[in-house]
Design goal:
Elements lengths: L36 E12 L2 E12 L3 E5 L6 H8 L7 E6 L2 E2 L7 H7 E4 L11 H11 L5 H14 L15 H13 L5 E5 L7 H16 L4 E4 L3 H7 L2 E6 L2 E6 L1 H6 L4 H12 L4
Parallel strand pairs: 3-8, 3-9, 6-7, 7-8
Antiparallel strand pairs: 1-2, 1-4, 4-5, 9-10
The structure holds adenosine-5'-diphosphate (ADP) and magnesium ion.
The site of adenosine-5'-diphosphate has 11 residues, from strand 2 and helix 1.
Length: 282
């Protein structure tokens, strides 16, 4: 495998090789897996008061793998991503990043969050800062990067995703699609091990969705490990190595997208996909 990054300031990850088609790193196989495990969830449970949202989630994500989480609204996709980023404490189970248990008592939460990038539906850019400052802030303050180095890396990322000319604009001067791309770039600037994307196109006008999906596709090609909660089934189908359907607090069904979308095994998966088709989203 070749690597990218370096001078262009990319995440410095391995490009997917020609063998790297869908299903290459699919979970469940066990024997013969070549990729290292980037993220592992074991029996993760989470309740809000009496409401049990996650009822034992087991999930393994290989390095460079792209996993799409699908499921009805309220099925717990956001909660799952928030638990992985330690924004919600879990009630039971374990979460490991590259073999290190991040849910163990006494773990430095800030250090863990540096390794995990998360982007939400609402872009949450700092409104009083320029695009460039939005991207350089955390690398400078959290990673203590030299400001010139942080700026050079930020500019390389902005360049790579076609936003270099917006470097001095404030967020409210950008379209929603541009803001969301900046939010993704801001997360990338921290060079996370894993990037979590929560419905990042849901708040966008339809004509702006494509430019954001293009960025994610490009990251997938470059080998970024991602867990993506999405309602964009066409995107999941073409980009994911594996699709997981969340239902009833568990991953009810998972597999390569072609299989999940064309031959779903579980009646609940079929029902979910039927509703998606009816809504014109597949
Ligand atoms: P999804 O992202 O799949 O739509 P969520 O993870 O947002 O699902 O929500 C799953 C369930 O958990 C929903 O019933 C939601 O109302 C509930 N929930 C999420 N966050 C909280 C919270 N902080 N307090 C109470 N209930 C919550
Ligand atoms: Mg959600």
């Amino acid at each position: 495998m070749t690597t990218v990054g370096g001078s262009e300031g990319g995440p410095g990850r391995a490009i997917r090789g020609s063998e790297g088609g869908p299903g290459r790193a699919a979970g469940g196989g066990g024997a013969g897996r070549r990729d290292a495990v980037a993220l592992r969830l074991e029996g993760v449970r989470k309740s809000f008061g009496p409401l049990e949202v996650l009822r034992g989630i087991d999930l393994e994500v290989a390095e460079h793998e792209v996993v799409c989480l699908i499921g009805a609204s309220g099925s717990g996709k956001s909660t799952l991503l928030r638990c992985i980023d330690l924004l919600e404490p879990i009630d039971a189970g374990r979460i490991l990043v590259h073999g290190e248990e991040i849910t163990a008592p006494g773990v430095d939460v800030d250090r863990v969050r540096r390794r995990i990038g998360i982007v939400f539906q609402a872009f949450n850019l700092f409104p009083h800062m320029t695009v460039l400052r939005n991207v350089t802030l955390a690398p400078e303050k959290v990673l203590r990067k030299d400001p010139r180095e942080a700026e050079a890396e930020a500019l390389a990322l902005l360049e790579r995703f076609g936003l270099a000319e917006k470097r001095d604009e404030y967020p409210d001067r950008l379209s929603g699609g541009q803001q969301q791309r900046v939010a993704i770039i801001r997360a990338l600037a921290m060079r996370p091990d894993v990037l979590l994307l929560d419905e990042v196109t849901s708040a966008l006008d339809p004509e702006l969705i494509a430019e954001v999906l293009d960025v994610i596709r490009e990251l997938a090609r470059q080998g970024m490990t991602m867990v993506i909660a999405t309602h964009e089934m066409g995107f999941a189908r073409e980009t994911a190595d594996r699709v997981c359907l969340l239902d009833g607090g568990v991953i009810l069904e998972e597999g390569p997208p072609e299989r999940i979308f064309s031959e779903p095994r579980e009646p609940r998966t079929r029902e979910f996909l039927r509703r998606i088709v009816e809504a014109g989203r597949l």
